[in-house]
Design goal:
By secondary structure, the chain is α+β, with helices and mostly antiparallel strands. The chain is built from ten helices and six strands; from the N terminus they run ααβββααβαααααββα.
């Protein structure tokens, strides 16, 4: 009897030790998740700070800023329509945005550039901008103007330059004069053709179609991202990642 009791005692001790180990592992996982949540919160605050700083300066007028910077940033990367990168790249990152959106502006300056340099410029992926016009009616002609610029190989120049000269949302700054000045600054070679294209029914319908696509994908805010590649199941939605690393990881997983 005493031998059996000893064995049972040892078994109980072993089970207790294993249970304690499992609890420690669980606590460790919870701490990791908690740390991740804190990190995301910090990122969100940082983005809001960037937005606040961006809105405190000038914008929404024809005295354009960062024309040379945008040109330098995109130099050497192929463009077709609103697609940036090697068209043969097997992974496509989709960005659904509104040109009036201040958070989109923050992403264009702080997060997307990292992805462009690390994976788009290198040919690992390409990125395509699609209009998701949710701010106001002014977003529609802004989006159409970008598409028209894309028809002349300057779509991403237009997007980036617009963001860097963005005014206060729904304030009426998106005028014909402003849009044309952005086109000139972006290097659109044929302004007359651009004017005609941006007002065409086909281009306006494209803006409306991509907005509906974003809604079908379940997006409710901008910017929202999706990725598609050989290892993905169609367009896989990413929502609004808080850091470039999350987007880069999604691209790698879709490869």
């Amino acid at each position: 009897m005493s031998g059996k009791s000893a064995r049972e005692e040892r078994r109980d001790e072993r089970l207790q030790a294993e249970s304690q180990g499992e609890q420690q592992d669980r606590r460790k996982r919870l701490l990791q998740i908690g740390a991740g949540a804190i990190f995301i919160a910090v990122v969100v605050v940082a983005v809001l700070i960037v937005i606040s700083a961006g809105n405190s300066g000038s914008g929404g007028d024809t005295n354009l800023e960062d024309v040379g910077l945008v040109k330098e940033k995109l130099n050497g990367i192929p463009q077709s329509g609103l697609l940036l990168g090697d068209p043969r790249a097997t992974v496509t990152l989709y960005e659904f945005g509104d040109l009036q959106c201040p958070v989109c502006k923050a992403f264009s300056e702080q997060i997307v550039p990292e992805v462009i340099e690390s994976q788009v410029r290198t040919g690992e992926a390409k990125i395509e901008f699609r209009n998701f016009t949710i701010i106001s009616q002014e977003s529609i002609p802004a989006g159409a103007a970008a598409i028209a610029a894309g028809k002349q190989g300057k779509g991403w120049n237009y997007l980036e330059l617009f963001y860097r000269n963005q005014g206060k949302e729904a304030s009426g700054y998106v005028t014909d004069e402003f849009l044309e000045e952005i086109a000139k600054g972006a290097g659109v070679p044929d302004i007359a053709k651009w004017q005609k294209d941006r007002e065409s029914k086909q281009v306006v319908e494209e803006v409306e179609a991509t907005t509906k696509e974003a809604e079908r994908l379940g997006f409710t805010g901008t910017p929202s991202f999706a990725v598609e590649g050989p290892a993905s199941k169609g367009k896989e939605t990413l929502g609004t990642p808080g850091e470039a690393g999350a987007i880069e990881e999604a691209i790698e997983e879709a490869s």
